[in-house]
Task: structure prediction
Amino acid sequence: MHAYRTHTCAALRKSDEGKTVKLSGWIHRKRDHGGVLFIDLRDTHGLTQCVVDQDSPLLAEIEKWRPESVITVEGRVKPRHAGTENAKMATGDIEVYIDKATLQSAADVLPLQVAEPDGAGEDVRLKYRFLDLRREGMHSRVRLRNNVISSMRRRMWDKGFQEFNTPIMTASSPEGARDYLVPSRLHPGKFYALPQAPQQFKQLLMVAGFDRYFQIAPCFRDEDGRADRLAEFYQLDVEMSFVTQEEIFATMSPVVGGIFEEFNAWTGTQHRVEWLPNMSWHEAMLTYGSDKPDLRNPLVICDVTEVFKRDDVEFKAFKNIIASGGVVRAIRCPKVAEQPRSFFDKLNAWAQGEGAPGLGYIKWDPLPNVSKGETIPSGSDSNPGGPIAKFLSDEALSELRKIADIKSGDAVFFVCDKEEKAAKFAGRARDKICDDLPEGHASAREKGVYKLFWVVDFPMYEMDEKTGKVDFSHNPFSMPQGGLDALNGPDPLAIRAMQYDCVCNGYELCSGGIRNHRPEIMERAFALAGYDKAVLEKKFGGMLNAFRFGAPPHGGCAFGIDRIVMLLANEPNLREVYAFVMNGAYEDPMMGAPSEPSEQQLKDLHLKTVMPVKMQDEKKRA
RNA sequence: GCGGGCGUAGUUCAGUUGGUUAGAACGCAUCCCUGUCACGGAUGAGGUCGCGGGUUCAAGUCCCGUCGCUCGCGCCA
Result:
């Protein structure tokens, strides 16, 4: 017989009755009745109930073994007595009557409970991640992640892509974030960088003639974390040669959509997967106030600056801001007028908490003799109310209704600021309003659906408001729409890039572009952002050189695997979908990382550490 | 770098206006129990109330500082 097991803990059924079997696993739960002891034995596959009664000399010994100890039991498979079967367990019709038992590894008293969710905090869970991972939720989320990655690989190979490995220790590549650096022993004073993305390598593979690349690629960025952002993460990194933007969408939409279809019922709720038409970046920012809008939220934003510019509108607060170049955005909220006063007051308080002067609104309470939903442009179907209504003439109100498509019973919230700020704040208010509405309201967030679409036509450049300096707004590898001619045009801020994102339920899943493979266009593109040829050569010399020896037109994208798994697992925190992660301060309390190197290590690496003044003081005091 | 929230038993939490010996649940230990499946019952151990300072007759509670965790802003695809 096998040293440890003949079956897994999920395998045995009634048909195995009478067999002598061996199982190994963890003591999940013990139920000790004095004369009879039940042990639920667990492995990664499932649970099997094992029994010892007082006829057995083993009882006294086994009683002492604590939960989460690893044991091996040998015994006979017996059908459970009539009425004691457990329909909730796959193996619930049988039990294993223990003849022999070995304690393979005893468990100490546990710092967190494995069999029960005990609400243990993240610091404890991360320190004892190996225990946390035994728990049902983490265990199955890690498996979900593995399955998603496996499915991605299969889908990519099926489409003729091959998986490549690219270096982890490489050169710093300025993609925006800070690099993690690795000191070189052989080259004093020089450092390798961990890749923020394998961007240049995948483009070089295109130059090398491999025309369909993918990689489940680790990426590293030394920027502060968030619930959905860590120092290291994985991307499904993709690049193709001789393709248009549309071909990339046509290739990748079925891959990511297929993943959502395949795993969408994992949380137990079936979700629909809906693809919506491409949206321009400009439309996303205007209509939704975000470059990654959640389209389950039905509220839309429109520009109503014209209304507040009118001579018969007396609202000075907005007029002053408009006079200095500001805009007014209106968030149209169907059927929201009937919400209680407290709903509007709470939103106003929220806006003030966010640093805004408030969140003004107008609501159109239906007049009793007019049926709901009926539109009379003059506004005579309803009674406009709210703090701002009195500043607008009847004509202004009716223009507002026309522009914002307002019906009786609707409400509108206003945001007034410089364009970019107004757009973004209106976007956040749009989400806040939607979330504050009661469940089932016509304007509440839709449930049970993944809404996917591509945002296209990102601007190539943006202007820093303070310095007035023009810089790349996304990454500098994208081809400008219109090529060199566009770059020689009068207004760099009007140039769109062949740059796109894939968005799902408010998360940016993927970012990509058709790359700029022409050195002369790249030179001009960098010049517009104020970088001279020398900078370009220093930063991208390797890739630029390659482009001088025959580079195919190419493009690609990279999907954040963790965000996809977060959506599938319905978890708002990235740390819930990784086996091993660092905490918010990028420390690993289990492994003790980061740690101080030894003197010898520093010497080998030709390094000396200079501690921040604050920490030097602390050391002195200690 | 900045802001919000939190810090009390192994774990999750309660702790009133500052007032006697700081509580509960789960876990742990000992004992009882032959059919449970979150088994049940009895008893018990377990605390520098994050740390330092202050106010007070008296501080888990109030004040100041500091550290840690967490969420967000800045930053970052």
